[in-house]
Amino acid sequence: MNPNPQPALQLRDIHLPGAPAFWPPAPGWWLLAAILLALLVWGTLAALRRYRIRRQRQRVLSALASLEHQLARERTPDALAYMSVLLRRLALMRFPRRHVAALTGNAWLRFIDESGGNGQFTQGPGRVLATAPYQRSLPSDLDAARLVALLREWVARNAGA
After folding, report:
1. pLDDT > 70? residue 2
2. Is 23 inside a domain boundary?
3. How far is CA 24 from CA 17, 19, 67, 113, 135, in A?
4. Residues 65, 85, 92, CA angle at the centre, nearest 5°?
5. Looking at the chain, which terminus has fewer C-beta neighbours within 10 angstroms, N or C?
6. CA of 6: how far to CAs of 2, 9, 10, 82, in Å?
7. Can you tell me the distance from the alpha carbon of 126 to that of 117, in angstroms, rounded to the nearest whole number?
8. 148 lies in a domain?
9. Mean of the pLDDT values across residues 40-45?
10. Model confidence at 161: pLDDT above 60
11. Is residue 80 part of a domain?
12. At a CB cut-off of 8 Å and minimum separation 6, what does 156 contact?
């Protein structure tokens, strides 16, 4: 027997570490959140741009329809002048101002042909846009239906880009 027995060691059982903290997240989660936020912003901006382009196209087409009815009802060159102004406004929104703003007459018609008119403005029914707004009456050979169809085609090609 041992006269001086050592006291029993007071040892504790194995302790497991605590659960990982919820906050702050690991760097990978921060990266994923940043990527998702960037995608959300990009998607929102792209959707907004598509919406604005569609709305702009619809406004131009409705204005063109209104001018078509005015041309059929009044048979004055004012509607043709407004159609030319409508095309110019759309061209100024779509193309650089320095290429479009100063164009008049045949240069304007060539520009419209180059940007989607397929030669129908300098050689076809669109030719009337250069001269008719300055005349007192409409030309006798004016084919309003073909002209409006040509304008709609040009608007469809150039209103959304």
Report:
1. no
2. no
3. 18, 13, 62, 60, 75
4. 110
5. N
6. 9, 8, 12, 110
7. 9
8. yes
9. 98
10. no
11. yes
12. 57
Can you read off the two tokens belonging to residue 97? 């101002």
Instruction: Extract the tokens encoding 85.
Output: 């102004």
Residue 117 pLDDT greater than 60, yes or no? yes
**Rounded to two decimals, what is the model's pTM?**
0.68
Residue 122 belongs to some domain of the structure: yes
Terminal CA-CA length for the chain: 100
Distances (CA, A) of 115 to 7, 87, 91, 125, 143: 99, 11, 9, 16, 22
Q: The tokens of 103 are what?
A: 């164009």
Between the alpha carbon of residue 51 and those of residues 42, 55, 56, 160, the distances in Å are 14, 6, 9, 10
Instruction: State the total domains in the chain.
Output: 1
In whole angstroms, what is the distance from residue 112 CA to residue 54 CA?
21
Q: List the domain range (segments joined by +) for residue 140.
A: 59-158
Strand, coil or helix: what is 38? Answer: helix
CA 76, CA 44: separation in Å to the nearest integer?
A: 45
Read off the amino acid at residue 60.
Answer: V
Yes or no: say if 159 and 60 are a contact pair by the CB < 8 Å rule. Answer: yes
Structure token digits, residue 24:
């702050």
